[in-house]
Amino acid sequence: MTGHTLVVGAGVSGLSVALALLQRGHRVTVLERGAVGSESSWAGGGILSPLLPWDYPEPVSALALHSMACYADWVAGIEAISGRDTEFWRCGMLALDVAAPDPALAWCAVHGLAAQRGCPPSVLLPAGLAARAPVWLPGVAQVRNPRLVAALRATVVQLGGMIHEQCPAMGVLTQGGRVTAVRTKTDTFPADSVVLATGAWSGLALDGLTATPHIRPIRGQMLLFKLEPGVLDTILYRNGLYLIPRRDGHVLVGSTLEDAGFDKTTDAATRARLHAEAAGLLPVLSAMQPVRHWAGLRPGSPGNIPVIDRHPDFDNVFVNSGHFRYGVTLAPASAELLVDLMEGREPALDPAPYGWQAALARAW
Predict the structure, then answer these.
(1) Which of 90, 132, 182, 253 could form a disulfide with 278 if both were Cys (CB 3.0 to 4.6 A apart)?
(2) For the chain, what is the total number of helices (H) and then of strands (E)?
Protein backbone atom coordinates (compact mmCIF):
# COMPACT_ATOMS: atom_id res chain seq x y z
CA MET A 1 0.00 0.00 0.00
CA THR A 2 1.38 3.35 -1.04
CA GLY A 3 -0.31 6.66 -1.58
CA HIS A 4 -0.79 9.89 0.32
CA THR A 5 -0.66 9.57 4.11
CA LEU A 6 -1.70 12.36 6.44
CA VAL A 7 0.16 12.28 9.77
CA VAL A 8 -1.54 14.20 12.56
CA GLY A 9 1.10 15.32 15.05
CA ALA A 10 4.66 16.53 14.44
CA GLY A 11 6.41 15.35 17.55
CA VAL A 12 9.12 12.71 17.35
CA SER A 13 6.53 9.93 16.97
CA GLY A 14 4.76 11.59 14.06
CA LEU A 15 7.94 12.72 12.33
CA SER A 16 9.47 9.26 12.67
CA VAL A 17 6.44 7.68 11.00
CA ALA A 18 6.55 10.35 8.29
CA LEU A 19 10.21 9.56 7.65
CA ALA A 20 9.60 5.80 7.47
CA LEU A 21 6.69 6.31 5.05
CA LEU A 22 8.69 8.63 2.80
CA GLN A 23 11.57 6.15 2.72
CA ARG A 24 9.11 3.49 1.50
CA GLY A 25 7.69 5.58 -1.31
CA HIS A 26 4.63 7.17 0.27
CA ARG A 27 3.66 10.81 -0.11
CA VAL A 28 3.28 12.44 3.31
CA THR A 29 1.68 15.55 4.76
CA VAL A 30 2.04 16.33 8.48
CA LEU A 31 -0.42 18.48 10.43
CA GLU A 32 0.71 19.98 13.75
CA ARG A 33 -1.57 21.79 16.19
CA GLY A 34 1.26 24.06 17.39
CA ALA A 35 4.95 24.21 16.50
CA VAL A 36 6.87 21.14 15.36
CA GLY A 37 8.26 19.13 18.27
CA SER A 38 7.32 21.76 20.87
CA GLU A 39 5.60 19.46 23.37
CA SER A 40 7.02 16.34 25.08
CA SER A 41 9.55 15.76 22.27
CA TRP A 42 11.21 19.05 23.23
CA ALA A 43 10.65 18.87 26.99
CA GLY A 44 12.22 15.47 27.75
CA GLY A 45 15.78 14.46 28.44
CA GLY A 46 16.70 12.27 25.48
CA ILE A 47 17.93 9.17 27.34
CA LEU A 48 17.79 6.28 24.87
CA SER A 49 16.83 3.60 27.37
CA PRO A 50 14.13 2.97 29.93
CA LEU A 51 15.52 4.38 33.17
CA LEU A 52 15.87 0.96 34.78
CA PRO A 53 15.21 -1.34 31.82
CA TRP A 54 14.63 -4.42 33.98
CA ASP A 55 11.68 -2.74 35.74
CA TYR A 56 9.34 -2.48 32.73
CA PRO A 57 6.82 -4.80 31.06
CA GLU A 58 8.22 -6.96 28.29
CA PRO A 59 6.43 -5.02 25.50
CA VAL A 60 8.32 -1.87 26.53
CA SER A 61 11.60 -3.79 26.71
CA ALA A 62 11.08 -5.35 23.27
CA LEU A 63 10.48 -1.99 21.60
CA ALA A 64 13.28 -0.31 23.54
CA LEU A 65 15.91 -2.93 22.79
CA HIS A 66 14.94 -2.94 19.09
CA SER A 67 15.28 0.84 18.99
CA MET A 68 18.51 0.89 20.97
CA ALA A 69 20.09 -1.60 18.55
CA CYS A 70 19.34 0.53 15.50
CA TYR A 71 19.49 4.06 16.94
CA ALA A 72 23.06 4.94 15.94
CA ASP A 73 22.44 4.03 12.30
CA TRP A 74 19.01 5.69 12.36
CA VAL A 75 20.33 9.06 13.55
CA ALA A 76 23.34 8.80 11.23
CA GLY A 77 20.95 8.56 8.29
CA ILE A 78 18.93 11.52 9.55
CA GLU A 79 22.10 13.58 10.05
CA ALA A 80 23.37 12.69 6.57
CA ILE A 81 20.18 13.87 4.87
CA SER A 82 19.50 16.91 7.05
CA GLY A 83 23.07 18.09 7.60
CA ARG A 84 22.20 18.60 11.29
CA ASP A 85 23.91 17.14 14.36
CA THR A 86 21.57 15.34 16.79
CA GLU A 87 24.35 15.04 19.41
CA PHE A 88 23.96 11.29 19.72
CA TRP A 89 26.36 10.25 22.48
CA ARG A 90 26.92 6.80 23.98
CA CYS A 91 27.83 8.21 27.39
CA GLY A 92 26.59 5.27 29.50
CA MET A 93 24.32 5.37 32.53
CA LEU A 94 25.18 4.66 36.16
CA ALA A 95 22.21 3.51 38.27
CA LEU A 96 22.74 3.99 42.00
CA ASP A 97 20.98 2.35 44.96
CA VAL A 98 19.72 -0.51 42.81
CA ALA A 99 17.57 -2.56 45.17
CA ALA A 100 18.30 -5.95 43.62
CA PRO A 101 21.44 -5.74 41.49
CA ASP A 102 21.81 -9.49 40.87
CA PRO A 103 18.41 -9.94 39.18
CA ALA A 104 19.02 -6.70 37.28
CA LEU A 105 22.33 -7.99 35.95
CA ALA A 106 20.73 -11.34 35.10
CA TRP A 107 17.98 -9.57 33.12
CA CYS A 108 20.59 -7.58 31.20
CA ALA A 109 22.51 -10.76 30.37
CA VAL A 110 19.38 -12.49 29.05
CA HIS A 111 18.43 -9.48 26.93
CA GLY A 112 21.89 -8.77 25.56
CA LEU A 113 22.31 -5.44 27.34
CA ALA A 114 25.86 -4.76 28.56
CA ALA A 115 25.94 -4.24 32.33
CA GLN A 116 28.29 -4.65 35.26
CA ARG A 117 28.25 -4.19 38.99
CA GLY A 118 30.25 -1.23 40.27
CA CYS A 119 31.58 1.92 38.72
CA PRO A 120 34.35 1.70 36.10
CA PRO A 121 37.55 3.67 36.78
CA SER A 122 36.85 5.88 33.75
CA VAL A 123 33.77 7.36 35.44
CA LEU A 124 34.64 9.93 38.09
CA LEU A 125 32.03 10.13 40.86
CA PRO A 126 31.72 12.39 43.88
CA ALA A 127 32.91 10.80 47.14
CA GLY A 128 30.48 8.30 48.60
CA LEU A 129 28.47 7.55 45.47
CA ALA A 130 30.66 4.69 44.26
CA ALA A 131 29.62 2.60 47.25
CA ARG A 132 25.88 2.94 46.59
CA ALA A 133 25.18 -0.40 44.85
CA PRO A 134 25.80 0.95 41.35
CA VAL A 135 25.01 -0.86 38.12
CA TRP A 136 26.90 0.46 35.11
CA LEU A 137 25.23 0.34 31.68
CA PRO A 138 27.96 1.39 29.23
CA GLY A 139 25.85 1.01 26.09
CA VAL A 140 23.18 3.54 27.05
CA ALA A 141 23.19 6.55 24.73
CA GLN A 142 21.47 9.89 24.64
CA VAL A 143 20.41 12.35 22.00
CA ARG A 144 19.74 16.07 22.34
CA ASN A 145 16.06 15.75 21.67
CA PRO A 146 15.30 19.29 20.39
CA ARG A 147 18.12 18.85 17.87
CA LEU A 148 16.83 15.41 16.89
CA VAL A 149 13.41 16.95 16.20
CA ALA A 150 14.99 19.71 14.10
CA ALA A 151 16.98 17.14 12.12
CA LEU A 152 13.89 14.94 11.64
CA ARG A 153 11.89 17.90 10.41
CA ALA A 154 14.58 18.87 7.93
CA THR A 155 14.87 15.26 6.73
CA VAL A 156 11.12 14.90 6.19
CA VAL A 157 11.05 18.12 4.16
CA GLN A 158 14.17 17.16 2.21
CA LEU A 159 12.50 13.87 1.23
CA GLY A 160 9.41 15.68 -0.04
CA GLY A 161 7.12 15.70 2.99
CA MET A 162 4.88 18.70 3.64
CA ILE A 163 4.50 20.07 7.19
CA HIS A 164 1.74 22.46 8.28
CA GLU A 165 2.17 24.10 11.70
CA GLN A 166 -0.50 25.89 13.74
CA CYS A 167 -2.97 23.59 12.01
CA PRO A 168 -4.96 21.60 14.59
CA ALA A 169 -7.05 18.73 13.27
CA MET A 170 -10.73 19.03 14.16
CA GLY A 171 -12.36 15.99 12.59
CA VAL A 172 -12.50 13.62 9.63
CA LEU A 173 -14.57 13.24 6.49
CA THR A 174 -15.62 9.74 5.51
CA GLN A 175 -17.01 7.90 2.53
CA GLY A 176 -17.59 4.20 1.94
CA GLY A 177 -16.29 3.21 5.35
CA ARG A 178 -12.98 5.03 4.93
CA VAL A 179 -11.59 8.37 6.03
CA THR A 180 -11.08 10.51 2.95
CA ALA A 181 -9.84 13.74 4.53
CA VAL A 182 -8.96 15.49 7.78
CA ARG A 183 -10.69 18.76 8.54
CA THR A 184 -8.94 21.69 10.26
CA LYS A 185 -10.33 25.11 11.19
CA THR A 186 -9.48 26.55 7.80
CA ASP A 187 -8.79 23.69 5.37
CA THR A 188 -9.60 20.14 4.40
CA PHE A 189 -6.68 17.80 3.67
CA PRO A 190 -7.48 14.72 1.55
CA ALA A 191 -5.60 11.49 2.26
CA ASP A 192 -5.48 7.81 1.35
CA SER A 193 -4.54 6.94 4.94
CA VAL A 194 -4.22 8.76 8.25
CA VAL A 195 -1.81 8.30 11.18
CA LEU A 196 -2.71 9.75 14.58
CA ALA A 197 0.42 10.66 16.56
CA THR A 198 -1.06 13.30 18.81
CA GLY A 199 0.87 12.57 22.01
CA ALA A 200 -0.73 13.72 25.24
CA TRP A 201 -3.80 14.83 23.27
CA SER A 202 -4.51 11.31 21.99
CA GLY A 203 -7.14 10.77 24.66
CA LEU A 204 -9.23 13.58 23.15
CA ALA A 205 -11.42 12.41 20.28
CA LEU A 206 -11.48 14.07 16.89
CA ASP A 207 -14.94 14.59 15.44
CA GLY A 208 -15.78 11.27 13.80
CA LEU A 209 -13.04 9.20 15.49
CA THR A 210 -12.95 7.38 18.82
CA ALA A 211 -10.21 8.61 21.18
CA THR A 212 -7.24 6.36 21.90
CA PRO A 213 -7.99 4.54 25.17
CA HIS A 214 -6.32 5.24 28.52
CA ILE A 215 -3.94 7.98 27.34
CA ARG A 216 -3.75 11.15 29.40
CA PRO A 217 -1.23 13.95 29.99
CA ILE A 218 1.32 13.42 32.77
CA ARG A 219 3.35 16.51 33.64
CA GLY A 220 7.10 16.33 34.13
CA GLN A 221 9.15 19.22 35.55
CA MET A 222 12.83 19.59 34.62
CA LEU A 223 15.77 21.81 35.58
CA LEU A 224 18.78 22.85 33.50
CA PHE A 225 22.21 23.80 34.86
CA LYS A 226 25.30 25.07 33.05
CA LEU A 227 28.68 23.68 34.13
CA GLU A 228 32.04 23.52 32.48
CA PRO A 229 32.27 20.72 29.91
CA GLY A 230 33.54 17.47 31.39
CA VAL A 231 32.37 17.92 34.98
CA LEU A 232 29.90 15.07 34.40
CA ASP A 233 30.30 12.68 31.49
CA THR A 234 27.71 9.96 32.15
CA ILE A 235 24.02 9.80 33.02
CA LEU A 236 23.38 9.36 36.74
CA TYR A 237 20.16 7.81 38.04
CA ARG A 238 18.94 7.26 41.59
CA ASN A 239 15.44 6.64 42.95
CA GLY A 240 13.56 8.32 40.13
CA LEU A 241 15.99 11.23 39.67
CA TYR A 242 18.34 11.50 36.71
CA LEU A 243 21.13 13.84 35.67
CA ILE A 244 21.92 14.03 31.96
CA PRO A 245 25.15 15.76 30.87
CA ARG A 246 25.49 17.43 27.51
CA ARG A 247 28.87 17.78 25.85
CA ASP A 248 28.77 21.58 26.18
CA GLY A 249 28.46 21.38 29.98
CA HIS A 250 24.71 21.68 30.36
CA VAL A 251 23.18 19.20 32.82
CA LEU A 252 19.47 18.31 32.79
CA VAL A 253 17.77 17.23 36.01
CA GLY A 254 14.43 15.48 36.09
CA SER A 255 11.77 14.58 36.41
CA THR A 256 8.40 14.57 38.12
CA LEU A 257 5.31 12.47 37.36
CA GLU A 258 2.24 14.64 37.95
CA ASP A 259 -1.34 13.86 36.94
CA ALA A 260 -2.28 17.51 36.43
CA GLY A 261 -4.24 17.51 33.19
CA PHE A 262 -3.04 19.90 30.50
CA ASP A 263 -1.42 22.27 33.01
CA LYS A 264 2.26 22.95 32.21
CA THR A 265 2.96 25.37 35.05
CA THR A 266 5.97 24.88 37.33
CA ASP A 267 6.28 25.52 41.06
CA ALA A 268 8.99 26.68 43.45
CA ALA A 269 8.67 23.70 45.80
CA THR A 270 9.39 21.20 43.03
CA ARG A 271 12.27 23.34 41.79
CA ALA A 272 13.82 23.32 45.28
CA ARG A 273 13.32 19.57 45.71
CA LEU A 274 14.83 18.65 42.34
CA HIS A 275 17.74 21.02 43.00
CA ALA A 276 18.46 19.49 46.42
CA GLU A 277 18.26 15.92 45.14
CA ALA A 278 20.49 16.73 42.18
CA ALA A 279 23.08 18.32 44.48
CA GLY A 280 23.05 15.09 46.48
CA LEU A 281 24.36 13.34 43.38
CA LEU A 282 26.55 16.16 42.07
CA PRO A 283 27.55 18.48 44.95
CA VAL A 284 28.86 21.24 42.66
CA LEU A 285 25.22 22.02 41.84
CA SER A 286 24.48 23.08 45.42
CA ALA A 287 26.14 26.47 44.90
CA MET A 288 24.52 27.06 41.50
CA GLN A 289 21.11 28.15 40.33
CA PRO A 290 19.26 26.52 37.43
CA VAL A 291 19.35 28.46 34.20
CA ARG A 292 15.93 27.13 33.26
CA HIS A 293 12.93 25.34 34.79
CA TRP A 294 10.12 23.97 32.63
CA ALA A 295 7.41 21.35 32.41
CA GLY A 296 6.17 19.13 29.59
CA LEU A 297 3.20 16.82 29.10
CA ARG A 298 3.91 13.18 28.40
CA PRO A 299 1.34 10.94 26.66
CA GLY A 300 0.79 8.80 29.75
CA SER A 301 -0.31 5.20 29.32
CA PRO A 302 -0.64 2.20 31.67
CA GLY A 303 2.70 0.44 31.99
CA ASN A 304 4.32 2.88 29.53
CA ILE A 305 3.00 0.61 26.74
CA PRO A 306 2.08 2.56 23.58
CA VAL A 307 -0.73 1.94 21.10
CA ILE A 308 0.68 1.11 17.66
CA ASP A 309 -2.16 -0.27 15.59
CA ARG A 310 -4.96 0.21 13.11
CA HIS A 311 -7.80 2.34 14.48
CA PRO A 312 -10.92 0.21 15.03
CA ASP A 313 -13.27 2.71 13.35
CA PHE A 314 -11.65 2.75 9.90
CA ASP A 315 -9.26 0.44 8.04
CA ASN A 316 -7.15 3.32 6.73
CA VAL A 317 -6.58 5.09 10.07
CA PHE A 318 -3.65 4.15 12.32
CA VAL A 319 -2.35 5.17 15.76
CA ASN A 320 1.17 5.69 17.10
CA SER A 321 0.84 7.15 20.57
CA GLY A 322 1.00 6.60 24.33
CA HIS A 323 4.77 6.15 24.64
CA PHE A 324 4.68 7.93 28.03
CA ARG A 325 8.32 8.65 29.07
CA TYR A 326 9.96 6.97 26.07
CA GLY A 327 8.72 8.53 22.85
CA VAL A 328 12.24 9.50 21.79
CA THR A 329 13.67 6.15 22.89
CA LEU A 330 11.07 4.07 21.06
CA ALA A 331 10.72 6.24 17.94
CA PRO A 332 12.50 4.16 15.27
CA ALA A 333 11.09 0.80 16.39
CA SER A 334 7.56 2.20 16.74
CA ALA A 335 7.65 3.79 13.30
CA GLU A 336 8.96 0.59 11.74
CA LEU A 337 6.24 -1.49 13.40
CA LEU A 338 3.44 0.85 12.39
CA VAL A 339 4.51 1.19 8.76
CA ASP A 340 4.90 -2.61 8.52
CA LEU A 341 1.29 -2.92 9.72
CA MET A 342 0.13 -0.25 7.27
CA GLU A 343 1.77 -2.08 4.37
CA GLY A 344 0.69 -5.56 5.43
CA ARG A 345 4.24 -6.74 6.07
CA GLU A 346 5.26 -9.21 8.75
CA PRO A 347 6.73 -7.03 11.54
CA ALA A 348 9.93 -7.88 13.39
CA LEU A 349 8.10 -7.58 16.72
CA ASP A 350 4.85 -9.16 17.83
CA PRO A 351 2.30 -6.35 17.36
CA ALA A 352 -0.32 -7.80 19.74
CA PRO A 353 0.82 -6.04 22.96
CA TYR A 354 0.53 -2.65 21.24
CA GLY A 355 -2.91 -3.31 19.76
CA TRP A 356 -6.09 -1.35 20.41
CA GLN A 357 -7.76 -4.27 22.19
CA ALA A 358 -4.73 -4.75 24.44
CA ALA A 359 -4.88 -1.06 25.34
CA LEU A 360 -8.58 -1.35 26.24
CA ALA A 361 -7.74 -4.19 28.63
CA ARG A 362 -5.07 -2.22 30.48
CA ALA A 363 -5.98 0.07 33.34
CA TRP A 364 -4.21 2.70 35.38
Answers:
(1) 253
(2) 8, 17
